[in-house]
């Protein structure tokens, strides 16, 4: 079955190609040796008619002066209305202009084996202007501007590989050097390469002829320039300059490379140093933005107004910083030790001499701090806990003997509290005044939690099974009922 399908497709393709065989001779247009239309005229003006000459369209071949054979188009004119429109060529042959015009008719479906399609031609002519000539002229204008720009540099290279240009701005006005070029053949990572350096001997770009490669790129480079700031520019290989022997001054390829660089703003001289400084500044800004974004996305607190209650019970006010987690970009908060995450709070204050100072407080000292969060006060308490073996293991792994952390206060009534880990919204802790430590309620099995809670609360009338130890509402009821029924 598959063979039959392939055979049928092959037949159709061969028939299609055969049907499009075009001949223009003796005033006749033939497709597949069948005369389908008539053509008369010569050079730039033609008339194409159907076989009975009941319909005729005028064709004028146009070209842009001084643009070479490639910048050509034609104008089709309706004999019926006098209106015109422009047609582009897919391919044009200066040696057979008649056939090129007729081929364009085929490409536009103006002509088929049935003859001229007058309806298609008139619709095209009366339709929106194609603007082919304007596009060609605009393109040629850009080419002319680029050529004038390059000509203003008047780039040339001597046999030693020194690149010169009239626009060089060196201390000595007679010094027209802008850089250096070196051929590398064979290249260690390609068949042929040219290295372009500026006057500071900085490698600005490398051009590869074929199969060039560079670390960090999943591609090869063929007749392309790779710049120091990772731009990729096309530049053609040209062997026409050295017909007998080799001289760098006659080599057209490095001229093409320098032109590609110059056209894209790489004017060598001492430009790279300034560009590197600019790139460094951009990287600094990008880094700072990354740090800011990561801080904003974290659970950390950075210089928010608030206060600290120290171990002596004294209240200290000022901007507060507390980091509960690390960020990928290096933090500038002053907390460099990873073991300090969640265990340290920094208070910024102004001393008697008007200078900004910082004071560090540790969670292991039962420090309490509060911040202003959009008009709402959020408070945190430094606590050691029981029932969280993972936290203890983490402290040991980080070589820290401090098993305390700061926890956010969610509920508080006369020292009876429900708190939460700032990073884990389901990791709750309860705290009662008679206990120095808090009790984790979400890090143990039900049996282990019951044992820990019974030991922690020390209340014979408290029935563990009557309470939900996994939600804020359930834990709030635990501490409220304990306060009313069990508190000593």
Gist of the model:
Residues 1-19 form the signal peptide. This protein is α+β, with helices and mostly antiparallel strands.
What is the percentage of strand-forming residues?
Answer: 25-35%
* Low-pLDDT windows of residues: 1-19, 331-336, 392-399
Average pLDDT, rounded to a whole number, is 85
Q: What is the tally of helical segments? A: 9
Helicity, in percent? 25-40%
Give the tally of β-strands: 26
By secondary-structure content and strand pairing, the structural class works out as alpha+beta
Radius of gyration: 41 Å
Q: Tell me the strand order in the biggest sheet.
A: 1-2-3-4-5-6-7
Number of domains: 3
Sum up the overall morphology in one term.
elongated
Signal peptide: 1-19
Keywords: Signal
Organism: Flavobacterium frigidarium
Protein name: WG containing repeat-containing protein
